[in-house]
Amino acid sequence: MASALTEKLSRLVKELRGQARITESNVQDMLREVRMALLEADVALPVVRDFIARVKDKALGQEVVGSLTPGQALVGIIHRELAATMGAGVADLNLAVQPPAVILMAGLQGAGKTTTTAKLAKWLIERRKKKVLTVSTDVYRPAAIEQLKTVTRQAGAEWFASTPQQSPLDIARAALDHARRHYFDVLLVDTAGRLAIDEAMMREIQALHAELKPAETLFVVDAMQGQDAVNTARAFKEALPLTGIVLTKLDGDSRGGAALSVRAITGAPIKFAGVSEKIDGLELFDAERHAGRVLG
Ligand code: GDP
């Protein structure tokens, strides 16, 4: 991941590893630099504060000062705390419900919702051997409905037709009914997005949530968005009980901060990472591995 955060932290990590002696005062200096790097990478301030406090707490304990390789020990702590901030282990999807399990996709326009819906369909078919149906409730953009049709076909899943003349709720009901009658395991519901948060959009997706009672409500967010990603995440978290986050465009030249912030701000686990524009460019998010990448 070619991010500013990675470059800064790799440089710091290199410096740290070479430190023969770590004292309380140079731990403070180093943490000041880590703090700067995180802020410059658009990690939200409360998240940075909390992170630094946790690292400092551990670093000033026996673990670092007094260890044979104090630089290494401090890097180890930073790595562990980065991973802990982004999640613990790999958070899988919850599909243990009476089928069809509904997955509601939420997020702003351009975040990668439609692409991710198709990627997830393919992932569910190939990795979980599921029978998958997709549907779009984006009645405002006929092109979005067509786009879902195209990418669903690429994914090898089935697509449920909808038209701009229907209401989103009617589409949702019809798709769920179809999924039940034809024994689909999973129904993926791609919803309308806007360029910015608006109340009508939030009310609409809340109504869809109430109707569909999804097993998963995934918030799709563009990792390149930095601080904006945090604000959007907060707004969606307030409107919907999010069960997971999909961080898209992690392959891009993002500043790397979004991954750290969105989890801490929403409390929802990052479940998937979008790593390319292609239909197979979706991975289960691995916080441990991502922390390693961020540290370079
Ligand atoms: P939506 O408006 O939220 O449905 O967004 P789209 O699914 O139409 O995606 C917007 C753009 O982002 C498209 O050009 C996608 O190809 C691109 N995109 C989505 N996910 C990824 C990703 O993980 N990596 C990259 N590089 N591009 C992505």
Automatic annotation (TrEMBL):
Keyword Nucleus (UniProt): no
Compartment(s): Cytoplasm
- Listed binding positions for GTP are 107-114, 190-194, 248-251
MF terms from GO for this chain are: 7S RNA binding; GTP binding; GTPase activity
Instruction: Please give the catalytic activity noted in the UniProt record.
Output: GTP + H2O = GDP + phosphate + H(+)
Q: What class of enzyme is it?
A: hydrolase
Sorted alphabetically, the keyword list is: Cytoplasm, GTP-binding, Hydrolase, Nucleotide-binding, Ribonucleoprotein, RNA-binding, Signal recognition particle
Q: What does this protein do?
A: Involved in targeting and insertion of nascent membrane proteins into the cytoplasmic membrane. Binds to the hydrophobic signal sequence of the ribosome-nascent chain (RNC) as it emerges from the ribosomes. The SRP-RNC complex is then targeted to the cytoplasmic membrane where it interacts with the SRP receptor FtsY. Interaction with FtsY leads to the transfer of the RNC complex to the Sec translocase for insertion into the membrane, the hydrolysis of GTP by both Ffh and FtsY, and the dissociation of the SRP-FtsY complex into the individual components.
The UniProt entry's sequence similarity note says: Belongs to the GTP-binding SRP family. SRP54 subfamily.
The name of this protein is Signal recognition particle protein
What gene name is given for the protein in this entry? ffh
